[in-house]
Amino acid sequence: MQEGESKAEKSVRVKRNSKGISGNIFTSLFDLAINLTDIIMAPIQKVIGANRMAYVFLLPNLLIFGIFVITPMIMNFFYSMTGGTELFLSDREFVGLKNFQILLECENHLDPNTCNQDLFWRAVYNTIVFVVLQVGGMVIISMLTALILNRNIKGRGFFRSVFFYPVLLSPVVVALIWKWILQREGLLNALITYMGGEKVLFLLDANWATGWVIFVSIWAQMGFFTLILLAGLQAIPAELYEAGEIDGAGSLQSFMFITLPLWTQTLFVVFVLSLIRAVQVFDQVFVLTGGGPGTATHYLVQYIYNTAFANQIPRRGLAAAASIVMGGVLFILTMLQLRLGREKEAA
Amino acid sequence: MFDIKRFLTRTKGRNRLDITDILTYLYLFAGIIVMFGPVLWLVMSSFKTQAALIEFPPKFLPYALETIEVEGYDEPLPLYRVTLEDGKEKVLAQVRRVGIEAQLIDPEKPDEIIKVPIDQREEVRKIKLAWNNYIEPLSRFNFLTYLKNSIIITTIATFITLLINSMAAFALSKYQFKGRDAIFVIIIATLLIPISVILVPVFLVITGIGWNNNLWGVIIPGAATPTGVFLLRQYMLTIPDELIDAARIDGASEWRIYAQVILPLAGPALAVLAIFSVMWRWNDFLWPLIVLSRSEVFTLQVGLNAFQGDLQTQWHFILAMTVITLLPITIVFAFLQRFITTGIATTGMKG
Questions:
Q1: Which CATH number does the domain B141-347 belong to among 3.40.50.2300, 1.10.3720.10, 3.30.300.130, 1.10.10.60?
Q2: What CATH number did the domain enclosing A134 receive?
Q3: pLDDT exceeding 90 applies to what percent of chain B?
Q4: Which of A186, B25, B160, B241 has its CA 20 to 30 A from that of A71?
Q5: Is the pLDDT of residue B39 over 90?
Q6: Residue contact A68–B12, C-beta within 8 A
Q7: Could you tell me if A90 and A123 lie in one domain?
Q8: Considering only CB atoms, which chain A residues are within 8 Å of B326?
Q9: Is the pTM of this model over 0.95?
Q10: What string of DSSP letters covers B145-164?
């Protein structure tokens, strides 16, 4: 026993030596930090007992969740029922459901011009168009890319990284990269004039701007979904394909009858995840177009942001009401995802 | 020769080059251009002078006018290749331009002014990196402050994230106590509440604490992440309880067990969370945008956004600052890409 201990000690010492001086400084600093914190922690443990130390370990996390997530969540409901321009809840007057009324008040809900908050309804319709096109495009392109990356290709790791790289770029960087390419004298217009076309003001035309906003967000996120879909593909056992080949299945048949059925769960998860994210579209678009031209790329989160923070007279109660409407939609989508995820686990 | 042809047309398994193989590689190489091209274009453009940037059609490489110092002139003079009346070609320095006429001098004989119509001269260009795009914003704007703020937030927030999430994960994975499962469910449930839904009340809380325009207001709210707790808890569940029992018998306090037994063993999971935390914090935009409204506390992302609004004509600065902003993430990715891609594929998490 004793001998074993000394051996272990020796190996620790050897390990520390091999780390060099900087490693030694780091470990001794770490030890010092533990010794200092233990001066507080050890007496606490004496008082409450070893097992209740779990609460101490949980405390910082729960405090942060409580103060910055759960309290605001509850406050949001009260906030949405108050009016005025004051910030603090106690200074605000109670108005009941008036904010929701203002938000939803329309002569004709299909025509934003007849609505009290026409910007909100424009944002709703813009968001619906964005979500349908972006999620549709994203799922199709990610599927295609995942299928291609799953083939027997050389340098798969490299190509996977190629498609994934933009995922890591910040929304501001992504927006600026594309703003530079799409501007009037930018690279794309240079290519168009080179091929004999006319310059296009991509970000100043409502349809072009919408199209590019969708394209850029697919460009920035598809690597993430491709990765999840690829993991789903690789989880399909190879024996199934071998068995299919023996039974004489062609590549189309093995795709239809082996790949697709076993891929459906992952596809649904990707579909709902991208849906949840698309509903919250904001930062990239905010930097790329600022919601313009006009209100062409003005989406829900930007409506909330503008109403609460950017406008001259903030109407935070109204913004809270709008965020509850959006939160409701997201909640339903998340529940859908959780149910599908559970089914996936069960399957 | 035959070997090269065979090498190029080699396929896996089959003997002939299938049409689908060709399409696959076409798709992949188009992918390289579409995914990397825009970033490459940004980097190239960031090294161009302001004059080269407004040039249309743009060149791929950063060319700049060659200049020369001539005695008697304060500024360096741009060089032009000129065809003279006697048919000879000469490189001259332009002093000024009057309408369609350019006044040039021979650098070797600076006294004699030669007048030439502007269409008979051609710029002398060479590849030159306009480092000034990078250097000038450092001194002229608050750029260094933004960089400093971003580094402070990223470092401290990542440290706190690792510390408190590993503490919570330790409690949830290694203790039996009342309410454990309920607490775990509540923590995971906060995943359902995206920040964009509670923008207004969180801003109110931050203001109540007095953290407006304070870096702590950016650091703390996001420090407890449900994904982090989940990832670490799942990993710690695989650490055998016997190690903890042995340390208890040796008389170690619970805090020591956490710090000296569990933390070192959870290294791989901590590394993954650290990488993610660095990326989340460095790229974060919406939250700092709301908490920080004074420019001395801006992060790089918020500062960059403010710049692109204010300095619409100063693209040479914006581009260079964008490159600096994406550089750290790119370096992290280049070294740790396997970590990151497998980490995401297995946990499905992203900021």
A1: 1.10.3720.10
A2: 1.10.3720.10
A3: 26
A4: B160
A5: yes
A6: no
A7: no
A8: 169-170, 173
A9: no
A10: HHHHHHHHHHHHHHHHHHHH
